[in-house]
Amino acid sequence: MKDKQQNDKPNLPTLFPYILSAMDQYYGVNEPYEEDEIERWWPIKSPELQNKKMKILITTFWEYPLIGGLQNYITSLKTGLENLGHSVHVIAPNHFPSSEMKALRDRYSEQFTQFFINRYGSCNSKILHNISKLYSYYMMLRDIDLSQYDIIHAQDRYTANVMGLLNQSYQKPLLFTPHGFMTQSRLKFNLMEKGSVEEIYFSAIDGQAIKNADQVIILCDVFRPILKKLGAEEYKMTTVYTGIDFGGGKIKKKSKKSQRNTVITCVSRLRPRKGHEYLFKALALIKDKLKNVEVRIVGDGEMRNTLEKQVSELKLKNVSFLGSREDIPKLLSESDIFVLPTTSDTLPISLIEAMFANQAILTTNCGGIPEIIKDNYSGFVVEPANPKQLAEKLSRLLRKESLRTELAGNAQAFALQHLSVSKMTQKIEEIYQSLL
User: Fold this and answer.
1) Based on the number of CB atoms within 10 Å of its own CB, is 73 exposed (0-12), middle (13-18) or buried (19 or more)?
2) Where exactly are the structural domains of the chain?
3) What integer best gives the mean pLDDT of the chain?
4) Considering only CA atoms, which of 333, 367, 336 is closest in space to residue 349?
5) Which is it for the CA torsion 206, 240, 80, 214, positive or negative?
6) At what angle do helices 421-435 and 69-83 cross, to 10 degrees?
7) Distance CA 84, CA 79 (A)
């Protein structure tokens, strides 16, 4: 009978005890829990490699390669480091057999469902989905020999947690780059309830990612106060702006003589937080000033039908939806004004592309944008979700070509000096070397 009870008892993975401790505190549970049945695997630490060039492991919790800002960042970093002579390996969940990953996720989903209900009386679906994927990724990664790498660079909080666990016996330099504001952002936009178990769970992951990292490379300074609240020390944070390789150097626009219209371009996913609706409201406010003006909306997404309907209702006949395009440098070479009306962002790649492309830029005070676009110097920066301000600044740009030229030139000069892939990888390489 005793053996049957033991066999019926659900497997209880406790690889990340700080997560369960945080949830226990939330639910007021003081009962100790037994260790899991997962075999922990602590390999023998190998001697440090003496290679002149580094072997670097970049990890991500999301699919790679894939279209998106994070994936573009990883590719740029990988290529830049390889151009410096280093060896770079990227690992993502989709690099493992999908059938094995699914089997693991199903297994942990079942086990954690039982565990959470038995321990807390309920089971949160978002937490269940995340923790099942977290444990599955750990199980696939644990067979990788980390001794072959000199540097491990996690590109999200989840792999920073997993690699922190796997790295305990190797003690390789572990770096963490957050590409978003994590739990704080979800609370801000009411995607997560303040004081909920979800906040407790994901905040525990945020805090441990910071704790595990020997150095946190941040994309812009706006991250600093957020990360400090999570326990990050100032000396462990280094800002390195995202760099891109755009068009092989300085981009020149086509001559105005062959271009009848003034072209306004917006390159962005069609998502609610990108703020297209406010751009269209702004255009409606200055409809009488849009003669010989063409507005190109580049990108696709779940908001496309809604936005096309809005444009139709506002009778904005000069707005065209071009969908996803792979010829962004060409489109920007034909453009005069770049507008990014985002309501939530970190450091948008499309904005950096526009800087290299010699665009007069109109954007919003979000994330790290004001760190690279100085209002009234290298572009106009307005408050998010403010059609009136957008309309006023857009009118000025349409009216004064000399102003567009001045702002665009200043933006391009900053990009050439600070926002290239070579500049980004050089700085990150220096951080890596300092940790060896």
Assistant:
1) buried
2) 2-244+424-435, 256-419
3) 90
4) 367
5) negative
6) 70
7) 9
In the predicted structure, residue 51 carries a pLDDT above the cut 60: no
Here the tokens at position 321 are 């939806």
- The model's confidence at residue 232, banded by pLDDT at 50, 70 and 90, is very high
Contact present, 381 and 375 (Cβ < 8 Å)? yes
Same-fold call for 2-244+424-435 versus 256-419: yes
Of 400, 387, 419, the residue nearest 245 (C-alpha):
419
Mean pLDDT of 349-362: 96
**Identity of the amino acid at 402:** S
- Token pair of 155 as six digits: 């590109």
148/86 Cα distance (integer angstroms):
13
Alpha helices, H only, 2-97: 2-8, 17-27, 69-83
Widest Cα–Cα separation across the chain: 90
Question: 33-42, 117-126, 334-343, 378-387 — which is least confidently predicted?
Answer: 33-42
Is residue 319 within a helix (H) or strand (E), and if so which, with residue range?
A: strand 319-323
Token pair listed for 2:
């005793």
User: What pLDDT digit, counting tens, does each position of 244-285 carry?
Assistant: 988 744 455 555 545 579 999 999 999 999 999 999 999 999
Would you state the structure tokens that stand for residue 184, as one six-digit string?
A: 């704080």
CB-CB contact of 148 with 434 (8 Å): no
Calpha distance 307→142 (Å, rounded): 45
| CATH class for the region spanning 256-419 | alpha beta
| Residue type for position 430 | E
pTM of the model: 0.86
In DSSP terms, 420 is beta-bridged to 244
For residue 392, the cross-strand partners are: none
Cα separation of 266 and 150, whole Å?
41
Could you tell me where the DSSP H helices lie in 142-221? 157-166, 182-188, 197-212
Angstrom distance (rounded) from CA 160 to CA 203: 13
Query: What's the gap between Cα 172 and its chain centre?
Result: 24
Beta partners for 216? 176, 237
User: What DSSP line would sit under 160-178, residue for residue?
Assistant: HHHHHHHTTTT---EEE--
pLDDT digits (tens, 9 = 90+) for 291-328: 999 999 999 999 999 999 999 999 999 999 999 999 99
CATH 3.40.50.2000 holds for 2-244+424-435: yes
